[in-house]
Amino acid sequence: MLPGGAALELAQPCERTGFTVIDQVLKYIEENQSQYVDRLKDFLRIPSISTESAHDGDIRKAGQWVADLLNGCGIKAEMVETEGHPCVVGDSGPVDGDSPTVLLYGHYDVQPVGERGLWNADPFEPTEVDGKIIARGSADDKGQVLAHLLAAEAWMKVAGKLPVRFKFLIEGEEEVGSPNLAPFIEKYRDRLSCDYITLSDTCKLDGDTPAITYGTKGMLYKEILLSGPVNDLHSGSFGGTVANPGNALCQIIASMKDSGNRVTIPGFYDDVVGVTDQELGMMKDLPFDEGKYAEMLGMSALDGEAGYSTLERRWARPTLDVNGLFGGFMKPGSSTIIPAKMGGKVSMRLVPNQDPDRISKAFDEFVRAAVPPGIRLEIKDHANCAAYMCPIDLPAMTAAKGAVASAFGKEPVLIREGGSLPILPMFKQILDAETIMVGLCWPNCNAHGPNEFFHKSDLWGGVRFSANFMQNLVGK
């Protein structure tokens, strides 16, 4: 029996007159849509929360569920230990002919549920509402990664093999920052070697528009800690005689941008590569409404770096944002003090060709130069990763575009993502392979929030996409 209760026997390749193998694979997928939903629900019932040690057993159960699915359809797979949670590694094996090897990456761990009172039902008892499967992890990433696994299973059922070699790397620590993934890939570099990587941990442009993401931003995350007097001081008795850490922090952060929202840190823009005319054209052709975007965010107006469109700023321009300010008196009422300590957290999203180490050094030098006498400074580093860009003319990109169009009945748009995926530059560095990112979920799917959902139609479309993608890669 397969995970989810579906029985599967390896079949010899079908030979129906007039039907190609991919036709038969797609027919098999159509015939099994209902059981795919049931199996996703079984997967979602496992509370594989990687950040909570109480769920360590559930993490292993979810990993084993994935390994059992692959082994159950004839693809050799196993759970391989790391310093933290295990990775599931599988391999469909070599194929005849000159075709690429593709590594499927995904994760089986999920976020904590947050405040349960905000959920309409038990986060780990999937419910169906208006074609949506609502549960923690449904979109991020169990539903999306399962689509690829089911496509591989469909090929094995119909043809007894995959048309190209697929390797599988499904980890259990993505939601805690993948701390053990880089050393794992270094250790098993030969086993994981590939020509391309594919993943579905991104989104469609909107509910009706499929998308392939070809670029993500990098990120620096800094924490600024300022200390002044040994303890809070009376602002009347001592005001005007000592530097105030609160005033200093506000001045430092305010000085990081000018009136046009450009970052003032020296050298910040030196290595930024502008958007090509082709990319600008693609952005202008997207069905994007700035008014509706602002309304969705609850904003009366949009803002950002002068001279650039909203999509350029969102996807292709570097940014700097305050993420939090803390310290001093923060309770209800008033307390007239000069705070002894203040702190702020600042993140910078970087674009291709910006060196995060160089920008990190420039940021630190800028802050140090702005600290007034009498104030002690500490800077903490919380994140550092580079941006990633996949060439849009790759043969695998062409194969993916055709597969998406066949699966969803609509040509995909090519987009960038303002968020960061540190695994992408890491994959490029260690495996020397580009990553094809095809999002299957809606952008407003409530990932990481209450009532996370994944549409059944996107699960089925995702299985069709992956099956077609495998076929389209033959000979690429």
The CATH C-level name of the largest domain is Alpha Beta
Proportion of residues in extended strands? 15-25%
CATH fourth-tier homologous superfamily of the largest domain? Zn peptidases
Architecture per CATH nomenclature, i.e. the level-2 architecture of the largest domain: 3-Layer(aba) Sandwich
Overall, the morphology is globular
* Residues in helices, as a percent range: 25-40%
Largest sheet: 9 strands, mixed
- Write down the domain tally: 2
Q: Please report the distance between the alpha carbons of the first and last residues.
A: 35 Å
This entry's quaternary arrangement is single chain
What's the topology here?
Layout: H1 21-31, H2 33-44, H3 56-72, E1 76-80, E2 87-91, E3 101-107, E4 127-129, E5 132-134, H4 138-159, E6 165-171, H5 181-187, H6 189-192, E7 196-199, E8 211-216, E9 218-227, E10 233-234, H7 235-238, H8 245-254, H9 277-285, H10 290-297, H11 310-315, E11 319-327, E12 337-338, E13 341-350, H12 356-370, E14 376-385, E15 388-389, H13 395-408, E16 413-417, H14 423-431, E17 434-439, E18 453-455, H15 456-472
Parallel strand pairs: 3-6, 3-7, 7-17, 8-16
Antiparallel strand pairs: 1-2, 2-6, 4-5, 5-18, 8-15, 8-17, 9-13, 9-14, 10-12, 11-13
Which descriptors apply to this entry?
476 residues; Alpha-Beta Plaits; 35% helix; 2 domains; globular; 21% strand; Aminopeptidase; 15 helices; single chain; four-stranded antiparallel beta sheet; 18 strands; nine-stranded mixed beta sheet; alpha+beta
